[in-house]
User: Fold this.
Amino acid sequence: MSKMKRKDYEKELRRLQAELCHLQAWVKLKGLRVMIVFEGRDAAGKGGTIKAITERVSPRVFRVIALPAPSDRQKSQMFMQRYIEQFPAAGEIVIFDRSWYNRAGVERVMGFATREQVERFLQLAPQVEKYVVDSGIVLIKIWLEVGQEQQELRFKARIDDPVRQWKLSPMDVESYRRWYEYSRARDQMLDVTDSKHAPWYLVHSDDKKRARLNIISHILGTIPYKKVPAEKVKLPKRDGKHKYDDRKSLKGRKFLPEKY
Assistant:
């Protein structure tokens, strides 16, 4: 399949983003709680997909959570505790850019968690997610799967591009080396946590444009919603009773240089 043309992609993305705005209004109106989990290999396209979802909606409704490595205090807590703190309240859609599944992925492969800790997590995760879903939260889990060749191309592009070098960490380089270990970890995770109440949906992401559109379309199809009629807004006349020369009052202030 050929890669999607940018013009076609941008047209369809704009249409889907408009639907996300309708979804946003419905979620607020009905007080829904939605949680979207994004996982996948490094350079699979999670960040770009999340940006495509959130760039036209309110950050007060769509909250993106990308937690750093746990602090010493958090390491002493129940493993899921710091994630549960971020779960949605009524009228919110929380997007996890990586999630509690770090334990089954990077922590397992890099040796940050013991075998017993990983096995315990895999045993408990479906139970916790059952509780989450039973509480009324809509849980959507998405795994982005990028091929070896495409991942290599994206890593090399990050190495050569100064505005993308920050995306390539020593951990990413090590994950590149351990491709097959990640594959085994992924497969065991899917075997155990791909449940009826919280299924995984896999997306081929070699073509980022198609992947983004397919993911947004899936989200819109998973959450039943209706268009909420928008209130008509009419701007009132400015109150001219106490006119004030607010341009003149700024004279002598420091404005930044107009280089453009």
About this structure: Residues 8-229 form a domain with the Rossmann fold fold (CATH 3.40.50.300).
